[in-house]
Amino acid sequence: MTFKPAAWPRKLRSQTWFGGTSKDNIYHRGWMKNQGFPPDLFDGRPVIGILNTWSELTPCNAHLRDLAERVKHGIYEAGGFPVEVPVFSASESAFRPTAMMFRNLAAMAVEEAMRGQPMDGCVLMVGCDKTTPSLLMAAASTDIPSIVVTGGPMLNGYYKNERVGSGTHLWKFSEAVKAGTMTREEFVDAEASMSRSPGSCNTMGTASTMASMAEALGMALSGNAAIPAVDSRRRVMAQLTGRRIVQMVKDDLKPSDVMKKEAFENAIRTNAAIGGSTNAVIHLLAIAGRVGVDLTLEDWDRCGRDVPTIVNLMPSGKYLMEEFFYAGGLPVVIKRLGEAGLLHKDALTVSGESAWDQVKDVVNHNDDVILPADKALAKSGGVVVVKGNLAPKGAVLKPSAATAALLTHRGRAVVFEDIDDYKAKINDEDLDIDETCVMVLKNCGPKGYPGMAEVGNMGLPPKILRKGITDMVRISDARMSGTAYGTVVLHTSPEAAAGGPLAVVQNGDMIELDVPNRRLHLDISDEDLAARLAAWKPIHPLYESGYGWLHQRHVEGADTGADLDFLKGARGNAVGKDSH
Ligand code: FES
């Protein structure tokens, strides 16, 4: 750790709005007084923006207004001036065509909200899948001191006395309905049991993964990720976060001081240890792109290889986030990485302490939830990156959620040209498919869907499910929900809609997946592949206006994080004409 706190007191950026007696200063300050703020709040103390993704249509974040009050308490206690600001909230469960299409829009809007308004520091109040990366991307681009506090996961779900995990059981129940072992009435009955309290998905899905990534990156206080949304200690965490951001502003501890390459490597290894979502690959690549860290898909494969998956949570394992919290949560996992020589111990965190110092004394309270290494769910739990003529820029697979026997597989391609084609054919009893085939889904990437939907774990045909078979090799340019599972090759790059080789796979082609050798091969000659690619034409028209127009023309590939090309990099916090 080489960070040296800045001298305090000094003039903060908010004073260019609120200090002085010019007409503009009075305009900025005077109008704020209609809310009843006493004059001394404008005296040069840190102004902290509480960037709140609260929304009743983002149900996982619907309790964040309440939590924001605790953040405010903490900010006032530490001598700051809190201002709560609603920001774009991309709900995973409600946004169409997909929340992912709006992650970058949210990041762009939040970046401008941070830069263009009088904020010296920011508390990023997030929870649902896309809200966490979008606000971290914004913070990285402005480099304004920022700290994450998440809303926390929902309590355990139970149905007929069995644990029910958000998302994970949605897939299981829907396949059971298809297989005829569950009625639709039971399915409807089960839905309330999945979501029985405020909070985000209670599995190690994308929301819990990204909360863990924020903590592992050092951007949230230690222990933040797993505290249930309704636990009183979540409120304590919010209050402590409010206190901490004030000191971070005084010290000038910025995202670029915390999110170094070492921090990303810590996060990648943490992702492997928790059996985290493949979505973290895209989000961390995008965040790294904003903060100027050279992170690649190869880093994911390299760093994750030696890390066992020790967190026994759905979808890879059997427990839920509530039990993870009782066992000790993410600090225990980070400590285990440190003990195994898999942690950059000196990495700085928002607490001001190193990654190691803040976890070295924690204790595991349940070794069936956080497993010993010799009982790991997967010995090599990291996200695997496969390449080959079918994915020249790479594709990813999560071994801990896959069937080991299918990790080396050769099969006949059954092709779905897009998600509508899949939906039209998958229930057809005459579909020419058996369990040895490889299901291929195209045009679901960042540009294609658009927005890279979580449809890569496409359900199996009912006639195969009825045989009791629950997994097949599936390949697409889509993403997969972090709550899902299966031998699923995702994020194939370049995507089909950008003219990648995936676009020209035909029914009957043979495909080889060889995870041990990191290979994904379409078994046709180079000449045939070149001829098919030369004849390829996109099958979907592009948006002609609006944000869709911007997204489809500027979104990059999944292999680099699917950010908009013109948003990459840090732009700082200076406003062109901020010297009124
Ligand atoms: Fe919001 Fe899972 S849908 S956290």
TrEMBL record:
<comment type="similarity">
    <text>Belongs to the IlvD/Edd family.</text>
</comment>
<dbReference type="InterPro" id="IPR042096">
    <property type="entry name" value="Dihydro-acid_dehy_C"/>
</dbReference>
<dbReference type="Pfam" id="PF24877">
    <property type="entry name" value="ILV_EDD_C"/>
</dbReference>
<keyword id="KW-0456">Lyase</keyword>
<dbReference type="GO" id="GO:0046872">
    <property type="term" value="F:metal ion binding"/>
</dbReference>
<dbReference type="InterPro" id="IPR000581">
    <property type="entry name" value="ILV_EDD_N"/>
</dbReference>
<feature type="domain" description="Dihydroxy-acid/6-phosphogluconate dehydratase N-terminal">
    <location>
        <begin position="45"/>
        <end position="355"/>
    </location>
</feature>
<dbReference type="InterPro" id="IPR056740">
    <property type="entry name" value="ILV_EDD_C"/>
</dbReference>
<keyword id="KW-0479">Metal-binding</keyword>
<protein>
    <submittedName>
        <fullName>Dihydroxy-acid dehydratase</fullName>
    </submittedName>
</protein>
<dbReference type="Pfam" id="PF00920">
    <property type="entry name" value="ILVD_EDD_N"/>
</dbReference>
<dbReference type="GO" id="GO:0051536">
    <property type="term" value="F:iron-sulfur cluster binding"/>
</dbReference>
<keyword id="KW-0411">Iron-sulfur</keyword>
<keyword id="KW-0408">Iron</keyword>
<dbReference type="InterPro" id="IPR037237">
    <property type="entry name" value="IlvD/EDD_N"/>
</dbReference>
<dbReference type="GO" id="GO:0016836">
    <property type="term" value="F:hydro-lyase activity"/>
</dbReference>
<dbReference type="InterPro" id="IPR052352">
    <property type="entry name" value="Sugar_Degrad_Dehydratases"/>
</dbReference>
<feature type="domain" description="Dihydroxy-acid/6-phosphogluconate dehydratase C-terminal">
    <location>
        <begin position="368"/>
        <end position="562"/>
    </location>
</feature>
